[in-house]
Amino acid sequence: MNRIMSLFNIEYPIIQAGMVWVSGYKLASAVSNAGGLGLIGAGSMHPEILQEHIQKCKKATSKPFGVNIPMLYPDLQQIIDIIVKERVKIVFTSAGNPKTWTPYLKQHGITVVHVVSSVTFALKAQAAGVDAVVIEGFEAGGHNGRDETTTFTLLPMVKEQIDIPIIAAGGIATGQGMLAAMVLGADGVQIGSRFVASVESSAHENFKQKILEVKEGDTQLTLKELTPVRLIKNKFYEEIQKLYSQCPTTNDLKELLGRTRAKKGMFEGDLDAGELEIGQIAGLIHTIKPAKIIIEEIITNFEKARMELSHKAF
Protein backbone atom coordinates (compact mmCIF):
# COMPACT_ATOMS: atom_id res chain seq x y z
CA MET A 1 0.00 0.00 0.00
CA ASN A 2 1.48 3.36 -1.02
CA ARG A 3 1.34 6.64 0.88
CA ILE A 4 -1.83 8.00 -0.73
CA MET A 5 -3.72 4.73 -0.28
CA SER A 6 -2.69 4.69 3.38
CA LEU A 7 -3.48 8.38 3.92
CA PHE A 8 -7.05 8.07 2.64
CA ASN A 9 -7.63 4.36 3.36
CA ILE A 10 -8.57 3.65 -0.26
CA GLU A 11 -8.02 0.68 -2.56
CA TYR A 12 -6.51 2.55 -5.52
CA PRO A 13 -4.43 5.76 -5.59
CA ILE A 14 -7.01 7.49 -7.79
CA ILE A 15 -8.70 10.72 -6.72
CA GLN A 16 -11.63 12.17 -8.61
CA ALA A 17 -11.21 15.94 -8.91
CA GLY A 18 -13.78 18.13 -7.16
CA MET A 19 -15.00 20.05 -10.20
CA VAL A 20 -17.63 22.80 -10.27
CA TRP A 21 -21.06 21.82 -11.64
CA VAL A 22 -19.87 18.26 -12.21
CA SER A 23 -18.91 16.65 -8.89
CA GLY A 24 -22.01 16.07 -6.82
CA TYR A 25 -22.61 13.24 -4.38
CA LYS A 26 -23.56 10.77 -7.13
CA LEU A 27 -20.14 10.96 -8.77
CA ALA A 28 -18.20 11.19 -5.50
CA SER A 29 -19.92 8.17 -3.98
CA ALA A 30 -19.58 6.13 -7.18
CA VAL A 31 -15.82 6.75 -7.31
CA SER A 32 -15.41 5.95 -3.61
CA ASN A 33 -17.48 2.77 -3.94
CA ALA A 34 -15.21 1.73 -6.83
CA GLY A 35 -12.08 2.01 -4.68
CA GLY A 36 -10.90 5.55 -5.42
CA LEU A 37 -11.46 8.75 -3.47
CA GLY A 38 -14.51 10.73 -4.56
CA LEU A 39 -14.67 14.47 -3.96
CA ILE A 40 -17.72 16.69 -3.79
CA GLY A 41 -16.98 19.98 -5.57
CA ALA A 42 -18.12 22.77 -3.24
CA GLY A 43 -17.19 25.54 -5.67
CA SER A 44 -20.60 25.60 -7.34
CA MET A 45 -22.68 24.94 -4.21
CA HIS A 46 -24.37 27.23 -1.73
CA PRO A 47 -23.68 26.08 1.85
CA GLU A 48 -27.05 24.39 2.30
CA ILE A 49 -26.66 22.53 -1.01
CA LEU A 50 -23.22 21.30 0.01
CA GLN A 51 -24.62 20.03 3.30
CA GLU A 52 -27.31 18.13 1.42
CA HIS A 53 -24.73 16.53 -0.89
CA ILE A 54 -22.51 15.52 2.04
CA GLN A 55 -25.44 13.88 3.80
CA LYS A 56 -26.52 12.06 0.63
CA CYS A 57 -22.95 10.93 -0.01
CA LYS A 58 -22.78 9.40 3.48
CA LYS A 59 -25.88 7.37 2.67
CA ALA A 60 -24.57 6.35 -0.77
CA THR A 61 -21.17 5.08 0.38
CA SER A 62 -19.49 3.71 3.49
CA LYS A 63 -16.10 4.40 1.93
CA PRO A 64 -13.96 7.53 2.47
CA PHE A 65 -14.85 10.63 0.46
CA GLY A 66 -13.92 14.28 0.67
CA VAL A 67 -14.86 17.84 -0.26
CA ASN A 68 -12.95 20.20 -2.53
CA ILE A 69 -13.08 23.87 -1.45
CA PRO A 70 -11.92 26.74 -3.67
CA MET A 71 -10.77 29.23 -1.04
CA LEU A 72 -12.02 32.18 -3.05
CA TYR A 73 -15.52 31.06 -2.08
CA PRO A 74 -17.56 33.99 -0.64
CA ASP A 75 -19.27 31.84 2.03
CA LEU A 76 -16.09 30.08 3.09
CA GLN A 77 -16.71 30.26 6.84
CA GLN A 78 -20.14 28.65 6.40
CA ILE A 79 -18.64 25.95 4.18
CA ILE A 80 -15.96 25.15 6.76
CA ASP A 81 -18.56 25.07 9.55
CA ILE A 82 -20.67 22.57 7.60
CA ILE A 83 -17.67 20.35 6.87
CA VAL A 84 -16.76 20.26 10.56
CA LYS A 85 -20.38 19.74 11.64
CA GLU A 86 -20.87 16.88 9.17
CA ARG A 87 -17.53 15.34 10.22
CA VAL A 88 -16.06 15.20 6.75
CA LYS A 89 -12.66 13.55 7.14
CA ILE A 90 -10.87 14.76 3.98
CA VAL A 91 -10.69 18.26 2.50
CA PHE A 92 -8.91 19.41 -0.65
CA THR A 93 -8.31 23.17 -0.74
CA SER A 94 -7.40 25.25 -3.78
CA ALA A 95 -7.14 28.82 -5.07
CA GLY A 96 -5.89 30.41 -1.86
CA ASN A 97 -3.36 30.44 0.95
CA PRO A 98 -3.19 27.04 2.71
CA LYS A 99 -2.07 28.69 5.95
CA THR A 100 -5.50 30.26 6.37
CA TRP A 101 -7.52 27.13 7.16
CA THR A 102 -5.16 24.14 7.37
CA PRO A 103 -4.44 24.42 11.14
CA TYR A 104 -8.14 24.80 11.95
CA LEU A 105 -9.17 21.84 9.79
CA LYS A 106 -6.43 19.63 11.22
CA GLN A 107 -7.50 20.57 14.78
CA HIS A 108 -10.81 18.90 13.89
CA GLY A 109 -9.12 15.71 12.72
CA ILE A 110 -9.44 16.49 9.02
CA THR A 111 -6.84 15.36 6.47
CA VAL A 112 -5.93 18.38 4.33
CA VAL A 113 -4.61 18.38 0.77
CA HIS A 114 -3.81 21.56 -1.15
CA VAL A 115 -3.76 22.02 -4.93
CA VAL A 116 -0.68 23.83 -6.31
CA SER A 117 0.69 24.76 -9.72
CA SER A 118 4.34 25.47 -8.88
CA VAL A 119 7.27 24.34 -6.75
CA THR A 120 7.02 27.56 -4.73
CA PHE A 121 3.41 26.92 -3.79
CA ALA A 122 4.15 23.25 -3.03
CA LEU A 123 6.80 24.33 -0.52
CA LYS A 124 4.39 26.83 1.04
CA ALA A 125 1.70 24.16 1.33
CA GLN A 126 4.12 21.76 3.02
CA ALA A 127 5.18 24.53 5.43
CA ALA A 128 1.51 25.17 6.20
CA GLY A 129 1.17 21.60 7.44
CA VAL A 130 -0.94 19.98 4.73
CA ASP A 131 -0.89 16.19 4.55
CA ALA A 132 -0.32 16.03 0.77
CA VAL A 133 -0.34 18.22 -2.32
CA VAL A 134 -1.95 17.95 -5.72
CA ILE A 135 0.40 19.32 -8.36
CA GLU A 136 -1.66 20.47 -11.33
CA GLY A 137 -0.09 21.08 -14.71
CA PHE A 138 -0.95 23.30 -17.63
CA GLU A 139 -2.85 20.48 -19.38
CA ALA A 140 -5.61 20.46 -16.78
CA GLY A 141 -9.16 21.60 -17.31
CA GLY A 142 -10.64 24.29 -15.12
CA HIS A 143 -8.42 26.69 -13.27
CA ASN A 144 -4.67 26.14 -13.21
CA GLY A 145 -1.33 27.96 -13.17
CA ARG A 146 -0.37 31.03 -15.15
CA ASP A 147 3.14 29.74 -15.91
CA GLU A 148 1.98 26.97 -18.24
CA THR A 149 4.23 24.34 -16.63
CA THR A 150 3.20 20.87 -17.75
CA THR A 151 2.37 18.13 -15.27
CA PHE A 152 5.30 15.91 -16.18
CA THR A 153 7.72 18.83 -15.92
CA LEU A 154 6.34 20.11 -12.62
CA LEU A 155 6.02 16.70 -10.95
CA PRO A 156 9.73 15.74 -10.67
CA MET A 157 10.62 19.32 -9.71
CA VAL A 158 8.20 19.21 -6.80
CA LYS A 159 9.31 15.68 -5.89
CA GLU A 160 12.86 16.97 -5.56
CA GLN A 161 11.82 19.64 -3.06
CA ILE A 162 9.15 18.23 -0.72
CA ASP A 163 8.70 15.21 1.51
CA ILE A 164 4.91 14.87 1.79
CA PRO A 165 2.87 12.70 -0.61
CA ILE A 166 2.28 14.05 -4.12
CA ILE A 167 -0.81 13.60 -6.26
CA ALA A 168 -0.32 14.39 -9.96
CA ALA A 169 -3.11 16.11 -11.90
CA GLY A 170 -3.53 17.42 -15.41
CA GLY A 171 -3.46 15.35 -18.58
CA ILE A 172 -4.07 12.00 -16.87
CA ALA A 173 -7.05 9.87 -17.89
CA THR A 174 -5.60 6.40 -18.54
CA GLY A 175 -3.68 3.67 -16.77
CA GLN A 176 -0.67 4.46 -18.92
CA GLY A 177 -0.78 8.10 -17.82
CA MET A 178 -1.11 7.01 -14.21
CA LEU A 179 1.97 4.77 -14.53
CA ALA A 180 3.98 7.59 -16.12
CA ALA A 181 3.05 9.92 -13.25
CA MET A 182 4.07 7.38 -10.64
CA VAL A 183 7.39 6.69 -12.38
CA LEU A 184 8.09 10.43 -12.12
CA GLY A 185 7.40 10.44 -8.39
CA ALA A 186 3.66 10.72 -7.83
CA ASP A 187 2.07 8.71 -5.02
CA GLY A 188 -1.31 8.95 -6.70
CA VAL A 189 -3.23 10.74 -9.45
CA GLN A 190 -6.16 13.13 -9.52
CA ILE A 191 -8.38 12.73 -12.56
CA GLY A 192 -10.98 15.28 -13.64
CA SER A 193 -11.84 15.31 -17.32
CA ARG A 194 -12.37 11.53 -17.63
CA PHE A 195 -14.92 11.63 -14.83
CA VAL A 196 -16.79 14.55 -16.39
CA ALA A 197 -17.70 12.10 -19.15
CA SER A 198 -19.14 9.57 -16.71
CA VAL A 199 -22.71 8.42 -16.16
CA GLU A 200 -22.77 9.83 -12.61
CA SER A 201 -21.32 13.23 -13.49
CA SER A 202 -23.80 16.07 -13.06
CA ALA A 203 -22.55 17.71 -16.26
CA HIS A 204 -25.25 18.30 -18.86
CA GLU A 205 -25.52 15.63 -21.56
CA ASN A 206 -24.78 18.26 -24.22
CA PHE A 207 -21.46 19.00 -22.53
CA LYS A 208 -20.63 15.31 -22.12
CA GLN A 209 -21.27 14.69 -25.82
CA LYS A 210 -19.20 17.74 -26.74
CA ILE A 211 -16.24 16.32 -24.80
CA LEU A 212 -16.35 13.20 -26.98
CA GLU A 213 -15.87 15.43 -30.06
CA VAL A 214 -12.83 17.28 -28.71
CA LYS A 215 -9.57 16.73 -30.57
CA GLU A 216 -6.01 17.91 -29.99
CA GLY A 217 -5.92 21.71 -30.19
CA ASP A 218 -9.62 22.23 -29.45
CA THR A 219 -8.99 23.68 -25.98
CA GLN A 220 -7.05 26.73 -24.85
CA LEU A 221 -5.88 28.24 -21.55
CA THR A 222 -7.24 31.78 -21.29
CA LEU A 223 -8.43 34.55 -18.95
CA LYS A 224 -5.09 34.59 -17.11
CA GLU A 225 -5.78 38.11 -15.87
CA LEU A 226 -8.67 36.71 -13.80
CA THR A 227 -8.13 33.04 -12.97
CA PRO A 228 -6.58 30.92 -15.76
CA VAL A 229 -9.08 28.47 -17.21
CA ARG A 230 -8.88 25.95 -20.05
CA LEU A 231 -11.89 26.14 -22.34
CA ILE A 232 -13.25 24.34 -25.37
CA LYS A 233 -13.13 26.73 -28.31
CA ASN A 234 -16.77 27.68 -28.79
CA LYS A 235 -18.60 30.97 -29.54
CA PHE A 236 -17.97 32.25 -26.01
CA TYR A 237 -14.25 31.53 -26.40
CA GLU A 238 -14.29 33.44 -29.70
CA GLU A 239 -15.88 36.40 -27.91
CA ILE A 240 -13.00 36.34 -25.42
CA GLN A 241 -10.45 36.37 -28.25
CA LYS A 242 -12.23 39.24 -29.96
CA LEU A 243 -12.17 41.22 -26.73
CA TYR A 244 -8.44 40.51 -26.28
CA SER A 245 -7.80 42.08 -29.69
CA GLN A 246 -9.15 45.34 -28.22
CA CYS A 247 -6.67 45.40 -25.30
CA PRO A 248 -9.33 44.95 -22.59
CA THR A 249 -9.06 45.90 -18.95
CA THR A 250 -9.56 43.34 -16.21
CA ASN A 251 -13.03 44.79 -15.65
CA ASP A 252 -13.86 44.30 -19.33
CA LEU A 253 -12.96 40.62 -19.03
CA LYS A 254 -14.96 40.26 -15.81
CA GLU A 255 -17.99 41.84 -17.48
CA LEU A 256 -17.81 39.44 -20.41
CA LEU A 257 -17.33 36.42 -18.14
CA GLY A 258 -20.18 37.35 -15.81
CA ARG A 259 -21.19 35.12 -12.93
CA THR A 260 -22.98 32.18 -14.53
CA ARG A 261 -20.96 31.20 -17.61
CA ALA A 262 -19.68 27.91 -16.17
CA LYS A 263 -23.15 26.91 -14.99
CA LYS A 264 -24.64 27.88 -18.34
CA GLY A 265 -22.19 25.71 -20.25
CA MET A 266 -21.37 22.69 -18.09
CA PHE A 267 -24.59 22.31 -16.07
CA GLU A 268 -27.26 23.76 -18.36
CA GLY A 269 -25.71 22.60 -21.64
CA ASP A 270 -25.47 25.86 -23.58
CA LEU A 271 -22.61 24.98 -25.93
CA ASP A 272 -22.45 28.42 -27.52
CA ALA A 273 -22.73 30.99 -24.69
CA GLY A 274 -21.44 28.78 -21.88
CA GLU A 275 -17.98 28.29 -20.43
CA LEU A 276 -16.89 24.72 -21.26
CA GLU A 277 -14.00 23.75 -18.98
CA ILE A 278 -12.11 20.58 -19.87
CA GLY A 279 -8.51 19.35 -20.02
CA GLN A 280 -6.35 18.68 -23.06
CA ILE A 281 -6.70 14.96 -22.40
CA ALA A 282 -10.30 15.20 -23.66
CA GLY A 283 -8.88 14.21 -27.05
CA LEU A 284 -8.51 10.69 -25.63
CA ILE A 285 -12.04 10.49 -24.20
CA HIS A 286 -14.39 8.73 -26.61
CA THR A 287 -17.08 7.17 -24.40
CA ILE A 288 -19.37 7.95 -21.47
CA LYS A 289 -19.16 5.17 -18.89
CA PRO A 290 -20.00 4.52 -15.23
CA ALA A 291 -17.29 5.67 -12.81
CA LYS A 292 -16.79 2.06 -11.67
CA ILE A 293 -15.95 0.95 -15.22
CA ILE A 294 -13.64 3.94 -15.74
CA ILE A 295 -11.64 3.03 -12.63
CA GLU A 296 -11.54 -0.66 -13.56
CA GLU A 297 -10.18 0.22 -17.01
CA ILE A 298 -7.57 2.58 -15.58
CA ILE A 299 -6.29 -0.06 -13.16
CA THR A 300 -6.32 -2.81 -15.82
CA ASN A 301 -4.38 -0.63 -18.26
CA PHE A 302 -2.00 0.50 -15.50
CA GLU A 303 -1.08 -3.11 -14.70
CA LYS A 304 -0.84 -4.03 -18.38
CA ALA A 305 1.45 -1.06 -19.10
CA ARG A 306 3.61 -1.90 -16.08
CA MET A 307 4.04 -5.49 -17.27
CA GLU A 308 4.80 -4.43 -20.84
CA LEU A 309 7.39 -1.93 -19.60
CA SER A 310 9.10 -4.53 -17.45
CA HIS A 311 9.56 -6.80 -20.47
CA LYS A 312 10.94 -4.15 -22.82
CA ALA A 313 14.60 -4.39 -23.68
CA PHE A 314 16.67 -1.25 -23.48
Describe it for me?
The protein is α/β, with parallel strands linked by helices and 314 residues long. It has 2 domains: 3-202 and 284-310, Aldolase class I (TIM Barrel); 212-281, no CATH class. It has helices at 3-8, 25-33, 47-60, 76-85, 102-107, 119-127, 151-161, 175-183, 193-196, 205-213, 235-244, 250-257, 261-267, 291-310, and strands at residues 14-16, 38-41, 65-70, 90-94, 111-116, 132-136, 142-143, 166-169, 188-191, 219-222, 229-232. The strands form 2 sheets. An 8-stranded parallel sheet has the order 1-9-8-6-5-4-3-2. It has a 3-stranded antiparallel sheet with strand order 7-11-10, with no helix packed on it. Helix 2 packs parallel to helix 3 (47-60) and helix 3 runs parallel beside helix 4 (76-85). It is globular, with a radius of gyration of 18 Å. The model has no long low-confidence stretch (mean pLDDT 94).
The CATH H-level homologous superfamily of the largest domain: Aldolase class I
Average pLDDT score: 94
How far apart are the first and last residues' alpha carbons, in Å? 29 Å
Number of DSSP E strands = 11
Over all CA atoms, what is the radius of gyration? 18 Å
* Beta-strand share of residues: 5-15%
Q: What is the CATH first-level class name of the largest domain? A: Alpha Beta
Share of helix among residues? 40-55%
Which CATH architecture of the largest domain? Alpha-Beta Barrel
